[in-house]
Amino acid sequence: MKRILINKLNNYLNQEVKIEGWIHRIRVLKSITFLILRDRTGLVQCVIDNNLIKPDDMKLESVISIIGKVKESNNKLNNFEIEVINFEIISKCKEELPIEINKEDLNINLVTMLNNRVLSLRHEKINAIFKVQNVIVNGFREYLISEGFTEIFTPKLVAEGAEGGTEVFEVKYFENKAYLAQSPQFYKQMMVLSGFERVFEVGHVYRAEQHDTNRHLNEYVSMDLEFGFIENEEDIMNLEEELLKFIINKLEKETQIYLKLLNIELPKINGSIPRIKFSEAIDILRKEYNKTNLDKDLDPEGEKLICEYAKEKLDSDFIFVTHYPRSKRPMYTMPCGENETHSFDLLFRGIEITTGGQRIHDYEMLINNIKYKGLCPKNYESYTEVFKYGVPTHGGLAIGLERIVIKILGLENVREATLITRDRHRLIP
């Protein structure tokens, strides 16, 4: 007999069906037992004659198979229930559960949640986070494919870090030394130059940073894109605006059940996202908030205050900050004059979720900028060599998946939106 998912049972009223899943809740009466079964699509009430079961069978989170008849019913879950004919244990829960899955809210601290990650993901509200995350990724893919982008898959073992610096994980690579990729940046550019023109990737990246904050991970998912024949960074920001509108609209259409469960109202983008230069942001922080300790970059407090300004003064949850100082941007970033760059960050509800900008397409300028950053051009020859053979103007961006998820869903920590966390202290599960 073919298994039927719970969200399809309303099509089988008065018919015999087979359902399988986890025991979510149990209420034993004198002659019958009410059992709530859970599968990936929802919950259903099952009514079992106690003669069909043994008391020892009734363990929360055991996996079971039921054959029964779908009957009309007025219960809190559905307008039907299952009248059980046959009951089979597939896998019995053998130990007391370390966390309670069947409560409306999990009510445990983050460490306990992550230590029991597989179990915590069974909770409907925790599970819903990743259903929303999945739709965001699908929206990213769908929009870019519709705009002529090709999805690529780049190496995560590399000979040199794309961002420079020492924040890379070193790994033994046979008789050589290799690193885990900080970014697909070099390969994105190479694929633009190879003739694809427009490429994107959703993949893991690795940062050997010592941070231990609610916004940093050592392994996270980056949604990257790169495309050629642009005028400047404005084209990239324009694309991201339309991309975000598409994703938000897709969430509105496809995730209402999860948004309602999590009590979330989606952000709106009315018209264009506001854009201010980095120097303007520094002035705003000084004049509006008396914050005078920044000149080269925005710290977390600065990002939060600029987002407050955007919400209060510009009625926007999002704001682009452009023209970051040359000293703070990677070697491949197109300079704008002596001190600025054709670059931007997108801030959203208090945190930077995107970094992007125009890239250098001239070989000599790229070599000079590598030297300007205090790096050795010889170490990057496999990357720079292709710039000798005809390169379009190009640029791109990277969106941190976990960061955009926590801000859309009002979560406090990127680890809540990470399936399996890798941070300064966590290498298991």
TrEMBL record:
Enzyme class (EC, first level): ligase
Gene Ontology MF term list: aspartate-tRNA(Asn) ligase activity
Keyword presence, Zinc-finger: no
Pfam hit, one: tRNA_anti-codon
SUPFAM superfamilies for this protein: Class II aaRS and biotin synthetases, Nucleic acid-binding proteins
Keyword Plastid: no
Keywords for this protein: Aminoacyl-tRNA synthetase, ATP-binding, Cytoplasm, Ligase, Nucleotide-binding, Protein biosynthesis
Cellular localisation: Cytoplasm
Main location: cytoplasm
Aminoacyl-transfer RNA synthetases class-II family profile domain ranges (all copies): 130-429
EC numbers, comma separated: 6.1.1.12
Segments of this protein annotated with the region Aspartate: 185-188
Binding site for ATP: R207, A208, E209, R215, H216, L217, E352, G400, L401, E402, R403
Reaction it catalyzes: tRNA(Asp) + L-aspartate + ATP = L-aspartyl-tRNA(Asp) + AMP + diphosphate
Entries under InterPro entries matching the protein: Aa-tRNA-synt_II, aa-tRNA-synth_II, aa-tRNA-synth_II/BPL/LPL, Asp-tRNA_synthase_2, Asp/Asn-tRNA-synth_IIb, NA-bd_OB-fold, NA-bd_OB_tRNA
Binding positions (L-aspartate): E163, R207, T355, R359
Family, as annotated: Belongs to the class-II aminoacyl-tRNA synthetase family. Type 2 subfamily.
Subunit structure, as described in the record: Homodimer.
Name the UniProt record assigns to this protein: Aspartate--tRNA ligase
Organism: Paraclostridium ghonii
Underlying gene: aspS
